[in-house]
């Protein structure tokens, strides 16, 4: 019988009252019982609906039929008989069905079960139609299970939970799944029907009769498999396998399991394959996380990230290993004496390391912010392990602004400077950086050796944005001085128009003392040729700026001198002011001893020695000859003008005004100055804090001071304590009489 | 004393020995308590310091005896003479107590005002009375509060006029003296540490905080707290003790 021929049945009030006696009820029941049998026995196939049910139907109108008998029985209070008869009949049929399913051999078992299930559902539908009146009236009012549900329950109890079928069903399902896992192809459609059947019977049936054992078996399967893999695979391969299994399971669920099983099975796989082996995977020799980071294995890292994020502590495991690797690597980088020889290279390596890991986090770690933070904190940690980092970063910028950024586009310049700023942010001792930056900037400005004014300014702007106006106000002052000096020089030469001679051309930069890095300038004796024009300038300047004092910084100047050598070769020498003073002496003498030079120029000994070395001991720049020919300058050395000097360049640069890594004593001095500068800053912070708080305990003061100053440097608690004691002595503060750990502000 | 009966004389002696006061005070107290020792003690301890009446003429005479010929001050020579008369070593710590009573500004000097009003407050106007007073002055050092006052007074008194800090040598001398009275086992290490590592003057805060340190921290430093807001010199001293194995670190 086909379902398409089914019509909608309306229960209409039966117009005629018909008397029903018990014998009639029994007879009616028998008819219905027979109908049910017929349904189950498939004898209805081929017959139309009307043909099958005609004895039971009554046409009450042109379009509606009714099952009179069922209706009658219920109407006349024989519902109970009908219902229990139904139960009995269905149960009997189901037991027969069970036997046939049990009899099925091997692979046919599942198919038989499936087929019988399909039949049962069809039968159930028809039975429900026949007994619809009962279902709608007798069943609810007598709290009976509705027919459809009854049919399902009876199926469950008599088929699924029949002891011969129950175990076999589960074993069959699990076996098929296992085979599929080991690579065989199975009948997924059949599986789907069976699991759907279990779901139809109630989710607790699905869970108890299938899902729970399925999860247990899967757990032990994956436990075994993961153990096997981890012994023989490297980390990358293992993760690939784990990912594959995970995807398989998800696919399995979508094809033939209930959707709710997905979360449960994936969590089994995650636990067995990932969570249980996390540490071993991450630390695997030659293929673990560290190796992946070092070799930029983006795909592997991405896979690891995506897998590990599924399990608790997964990402934090990756992050922690990455952090300690970064710290270790960074620490080695900043402590390696080889690396420290070349500051520019040192910083470049830091930048490269940052770039590398930024890329990894962006490509493989989903730009995860917690990883970014771990990267930042690692950099902050190791950059500050080396207290020369501020100096080196400034030297790097110096190198770039001096020549490294030649020919680079504006955007690229910004990119480089922004990257440097990132490193700058990690510095704890920003005030040390400031000191060096000033020194290096001064040298760049004074030697005119800067690649691009715009780049210089851009850097200042970035520093100002980062650290505030105070940080950069002096630096800006330096630029202003340079510009003003240009104007001054123009004015000077305009005023000298009547006295143009063959005298030397002077270019003066007037530096405002407070803005430029202070360097005590020892005076030296300028050659007579220079003195004249210098005095003229001094007079001119002081004429227009009364009340100021000018001091020549002979240790910072440069000079261009024309020199003629033995065979008439002319060269233009670019030298420092000191070097010029020394060389000019040889206009009136061919040989001079060290002592004579020292006396004549009055240049301080250390500077003089360095100056003479650069003039006499450097190949290609030895415009002077020294006897003896040793590298070092001794007090009784003698110097000669080197007639035989040659160079393929007309212009020869011998000056030594380039910024370079400080020597130990210079470094020491700079650091001392920085420490000195910090003391008043710390005191100011203490006073500010105490003024507003009035009374505060020692540890709180230390914390607050540190917070206030952290954008410039990290104050040493011992220094803070000493400053407090100094303030006590100067009667800005006192200790509380009752609690010696408390300090009071004295107005 | 000759007018007293034997029993009374004994009581007077006992009283003086126990309270460290002069015979005059002893007599006063015993008379007031009708020669019962217990009562005499009660009487004595419940009275503020008995101000004996002093004769200002005697005080003037005394002052003139010790005053420097050129300046209206008792200077070094005068002080030596005074100590001699008192039969006391000039280095004796009791002179510090005396100076404290006199509110003397600087050691080895007494102004007229300081000397005279000092003696008045002590209730003495003769060398004999002064001498008798000395034992009770000594016992004042045993009192916790008084010791602290005298200790802190010593800083200002021992330092050079116009200086903020106390020269190291002087400080060390004072400490040796003071911590002989109030025993501190680490005083020698402290002094050595200062000479080796510090070699500079001592600030007032360091001076006063040292006493607190001595009073609260046990000689094994078991309750020393690095976060305890001690002056940095004391922190360094603790480090010095640990580093040199003088005290074992407890960790």
From TrEMBL, chain A:
Give a yes or no for keyword Ubl conjugation in this entry: yes
- For whether the record's keyword set contains Ubl conjugation, the answer is yes
| Molecular-function GO term, any one | ubiquitin protein ligase binding
SUPFAM superfamilies in UniProt: Cullin homology domain (SSF75632), Cullin repeat-like (SSF74788), Winged helix' DNA-binding domain (SSF46785)
InterPro entries in the record, alphabetically? Cullin (IPR045093), Cullin-like_AB (IPR059120), Cullin_homology (IPR016158), Cullin_homology_sf (IPR036317), Cullin_N (IPR001373), Cullin_neddylation_domain (IPR019559), Cullin_repeat-like_dom_sf (IPR016159), WH-like_DNA-bd_sf (IPR036388)
Q: Where is the Cullin family profile domain?
A: 388-616
Query: Mind listing the UniProt keywords for this protein, alphabetically?
Result: Isopeptide bond, Ubl conjugation, Ubl conjugation pathway
Q: A Pfam family in this protein?
A: Cullin
Q: Name one GO biological process term.
A: ubiquitin-dependent protein catabolic process
Q: Which SMART domains match?
A: CULLIN, Cullin_Nedd8
Q: Can you tell me which family this protein belongs to?
A: Belongs to the cullin family.
Descriptive protein name: Cullin-3A isoform X1
Record gene name:
LOC105056562
From TrEMBL, chain B:
**One GO MF term attached to the UniProt entry:** ubiquitin-like protein binding
* Keywords, sorted A to Z: Ubl conjugation pathway
The DCUN1 domain, residue ranges: 54-242
Q: Output the InterPro entries linked to this UniProt entry.
A: DCN-prot (IPR014764), DCN1-like_PONY (IPR042460), PONY_dom (IPR005176), UBA-like_sf (IPR009060)
- Superkingdom of the organism of origin: Eukaryota
The cross-references to Gene3D superfamilies, in alphabetical order and at most eight, read: Cullin, PONY binding domain (1.10.238.200), DNA helicase RuvA subunit, C-terminal domain (1.10.8.10), EF-hand (1.10.238.10)
Q: According to its record, what are the GO cellular component terms?
A: ubiquitin ligase complex
Q: Which Pfam families match?
A: Cullin_binding (PF03556), UBA_4 (PF14555)
Q: What does this protein do?
A: Neddylation of cullins play an essential role in the regulation of SCF-type complexes activity.
Name of the protein in question: Defective in cullin neddylation protein
Organism whose genome encodes this protein: Elaeis guineensis var. tenera
């Amino acid at each position: 019988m086909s379902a398409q021929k089914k019509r909608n049945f309306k229960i209409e009030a039966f117009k005629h009252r018909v008397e029903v006696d018990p014998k009639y009820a029994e007879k009616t029941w028998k008819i219905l019982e027979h109908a049910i049998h017929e349904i189950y026995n498939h004898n209805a196939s081929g017959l139309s609906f009307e043909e099958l049910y005609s004895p039971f139907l009554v046409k009450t109108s042109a379009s509606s039929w009714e099952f009179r008998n069922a209706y009658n029985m219920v109407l006349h209070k024989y519902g109970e008989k009908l219902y229990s008869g139904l139960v009995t009949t269905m149960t009997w049929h189901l037991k027969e069905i069970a036997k046939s399913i049990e009899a099925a051999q091997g692979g046919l078992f599942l198919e038989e079960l499936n087929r019988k299930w399909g039949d049962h559902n069809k039968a159930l539908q028809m039975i429900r139609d026949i007994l619809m009146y009962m279902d709608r009236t007798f069943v609810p009012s007598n709290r009976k299970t509705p027919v459809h549900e009854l049919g399902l329950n009876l199926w469950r109890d008599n088929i699924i939970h029949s002891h011969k079928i129950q175990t076999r069903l589960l074993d069959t399902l699990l076996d098929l799944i296992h085979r599929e896992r080991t690579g065989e192809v199975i009948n997924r459609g059949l599986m789907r029907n069976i699991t759907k059947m279990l779901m139809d019977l109630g989710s607790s049936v699905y869970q108890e009769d299938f899902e729970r054992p399925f999860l247990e078996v899967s757990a032990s399967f994956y436990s075994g498999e993961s153990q096997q893999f981890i012994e023989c695979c490297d980390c990358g391969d293992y993760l690939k396998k784990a990912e594959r299994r995970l995807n398989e399971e998800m696919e399995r669920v979508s094809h033939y399991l209930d959707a709710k099983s997905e979360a449960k099975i994936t969590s089994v796989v995650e636990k067995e394959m990932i969570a249980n082996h996390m540490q071993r995977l991450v630390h695997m020799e030659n293929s673990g996380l560290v190796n992946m980071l070092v070799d930029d294995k983006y795909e592997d890292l991405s896979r690891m990230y995506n897998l590990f994020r599924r399990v608790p502590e997964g990402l934090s495991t990756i992050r922690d290993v990455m952090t300690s690797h970064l710290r270790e690597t960074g620490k080695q980088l900043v402590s390696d004496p080889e690396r420290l020889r070349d500051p520019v290279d040192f910083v470049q390596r830091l930048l490269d390391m940052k770039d590398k890991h930024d890329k990894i986090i962006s490509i493989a770690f989903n730009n995860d912010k917690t990883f970014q933070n771990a990267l930042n904190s690692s950099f902050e940690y190791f950059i500050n392990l080396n207290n020369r980092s501020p100096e080196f970063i400034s030297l790097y910028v110096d190198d770039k602004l001096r020549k490294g950024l030649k020919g680079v586009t504006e955007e690229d310049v910004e990119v480089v400077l922004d990257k440097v700023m990132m490193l700058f942010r990690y510095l704890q001792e920003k005030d040390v950086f400031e000191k060096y930056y000033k020194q290096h900037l001064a040298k760049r400005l004074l030697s005119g050796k800067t690649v691009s004014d715009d780049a210089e300014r851009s850097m200042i702007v970035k520093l100002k944005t980062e650290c505030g106006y105070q940080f950069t106000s002096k630096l800006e002052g330096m630029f202003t001085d340079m510009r003003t000096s240009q104007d001054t020089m123009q004015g000077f030469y305009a005023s000298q128009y009547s006295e143009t001679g063959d005298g030397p051309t002077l270019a003066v930069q007037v530096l405002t003392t407070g803005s430029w890095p202070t360097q005590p300038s020892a005076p030296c004796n300028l050659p007579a040729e220079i003195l004249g024009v210098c005095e003229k300038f001094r007079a001119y300047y002081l004429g227009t700026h009364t009340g100021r004092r000018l001091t020549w910084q002979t240790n910072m100047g440069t000079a261009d001198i024309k020199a003629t050598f033995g065979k008439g070769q002319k060269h233009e020498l670019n030298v420092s002011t000191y070097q010029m003073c020394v060389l000019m002496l040889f206009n009136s003498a061919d040989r001079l001893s060290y002592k004579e030079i020292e006396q004549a120029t009055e240049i301080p000994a250390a500077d003089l020695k360095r100056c003479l070395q650069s003039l006499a001991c450097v190949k290609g720049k030895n415009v002077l000859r020294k006897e003896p020919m040793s590298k070092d300058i001794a007090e009784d050395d003698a110097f000669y003008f080197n007639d035989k000097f040659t160079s393929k360049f007309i212009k020869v640069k011998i000056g030594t005004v380039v910024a370079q890594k400080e020597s130990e004593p210079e470094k020491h001095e700079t650091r001392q100055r920085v420490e000195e500068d910090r003391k008043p800053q710390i005191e100011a912070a203490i006073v500010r804090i105490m003024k507003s708080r009035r009374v505060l305990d020692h540890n709180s003061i230390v914390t607050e001071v540190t917070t206030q100053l952290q954008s410039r440097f990290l104050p040493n608690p011992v220094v803070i304590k000493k400053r407090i004691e100094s303030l006590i002595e100067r009667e800005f503060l006192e200790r509380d009489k009752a609690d010696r750990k408390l300090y009071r502000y004295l107005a | 004393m000759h007018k007293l009966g034997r029993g009374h004389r004994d009581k007077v002696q006992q009283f003086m020995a126990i309270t460290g006061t002069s015979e005059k005070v002893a007599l006063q107290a015993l008379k007031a308590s009708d020669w019962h020792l217990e009562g005499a003690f009660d009487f004595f301890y419940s009275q503020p310091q008995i101000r004996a009446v002093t004769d200002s003429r005697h005080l003037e005479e005394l002052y003139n005896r010790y005053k420097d010929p050129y300046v209206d001050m008792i200077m070094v020579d005068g002080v030596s003479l005074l100590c001699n008369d008192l039969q006391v070593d000039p280095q004796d710590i009791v002179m510090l107590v005396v100076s404290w009573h006199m509110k003397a500004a600087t050691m080895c000097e007494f102004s007229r005002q300081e000397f005279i009003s000092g003696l008045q407050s002590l209730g003495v106007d003769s060398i004999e009375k002064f001498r008798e007073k000395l034992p009770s002055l000594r016992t004042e050092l045993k009192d916790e509060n008084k010791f602290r006052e005298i200790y802190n007074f010593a800083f200002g008194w021992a330092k050079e006029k116009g200086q903020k800090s106390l020269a190291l040598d002087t400080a060390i001398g004072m400490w040796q003296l003071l911590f002989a009275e109030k025993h501190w086992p680490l005083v020698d290490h402290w002094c050595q540490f200062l000479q080796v590592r510090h070699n500079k003057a001592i600030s007032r805060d360091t001076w006063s905080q040292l006493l607190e340190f001595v009073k609260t921290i046990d000689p094994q430093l078991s309750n020393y707290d690095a976060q305890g807001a001690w002056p940095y010199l004391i922190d360094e001293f603790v480090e010095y003790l640990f580093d040199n194995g003088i005290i074992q670190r407890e960790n």
